[in-house]
Write a structure and sequence with these properties.
Length: 243
């Protein structure tokens, strides 16, 4: 791990890719998650709030935005460090831990993590979880390197009971919701905005148990890209006003 960190720092010194370099190349490389809120395909069109914001930036900057679908946050961060991506256009919680190695734009969202489970049903032997204390001893599924992992570990410490976290690689949050509905798994944790988008599609599921407090969320980029950060903050602020 120490060797990896040293390598990343050396690479950063050797080659800086900030807004002047991006402007010269004409391309902004963006990592984005495929889901029904941020980026999705409808017929022959692409839609989503993050997609709309990226298109706004492209229009006002003259840059071509090149999208890379990336559902694994850790993988996205590694590729950001390697300069394969210039920005991660996902709503990532702004935490003290994340602030140590990532730069964040002005907040793009205010959300929280919620538990996905089936509604109370006498025919279902799986216990209904109405609060965080009842997560003790439960197995909870999350996407690979989900921001929810840190919060679930904190809850486990707070209640002094184990919570068994299962990370699913290659799956989206919406696929986990589907798996709970089909009784392939019992519990999952996803972002509230995604749960709200899917609540009408899955009437037999419950989305009401909060796992985290409301958190500020934002796009992430390298700390060595201060000019890009300033530019993104200007465009995001203008996008919010226009929206």
């Amino acid at each position: 791990m120490l060797l990896l960190l040293i390598t990343i720092r050396l690479n950063t010194k050797m080659y800086i890719r900030d807004y002047p370099e991006i402007k010269e190349s004409g391309v902004l490389n963006v990592a984005i998650e495929y889901n029904s809120v941020d980026f999705y395909v409808v017929g022959d069109s692409v839609a989503g709030i993050q997609y709309d914001l990226c298109q706004y930036i492209a229009k006002n900057s003259g840059l071509t935005v090149q999208f890379f679908l990336e559902n694994d946050l850790e993988s996205a961060i590694q590729k950001l460090d390697n300069k394969e991506f210039d920005v991660i256009a996902q709503n990532i919680p702004i935490t003290n831990k994340n602030n140590q190695f990532l730069a964040f734009t002005t907040p793009t969202a205010l959300s929280k993590q919620v538990l996905i489970q089936r509604k109370r049903n006498e025919m279902d032997s799986v216990p209904f979880v109405s609060n965080q204390l009842e997560l003790a001893g439960k197995t909870v599924f999350v996407t690979k390197n989900s921001p929810a992992i840190l919060r679930l570990n904190n809850i486990s410490e707070e209640i002094a009971e184990p919570i068994f976290i299962k990370e699913i690689s290659g799956y989206t949050s919406e696929q986990l919701i589907y798996m709970v509905d089909k009784k392939e798994i019992d519990y999952a944790v996803v972002d509230k905005e995604i749960s709200l988008k899917n609540s009408e599609l899955f009437p037999d599921l419950d989305f009401t148990t909060d796992i985290s407090f409301t958190q500020l969320q934002a796009w992430a980029l390298r700390k060595t890209s201060p000019d890009l950060l300033d530019s993104l903050n200007v465009w995001i602020a203008a996008f919010k006003r226009n929206k």
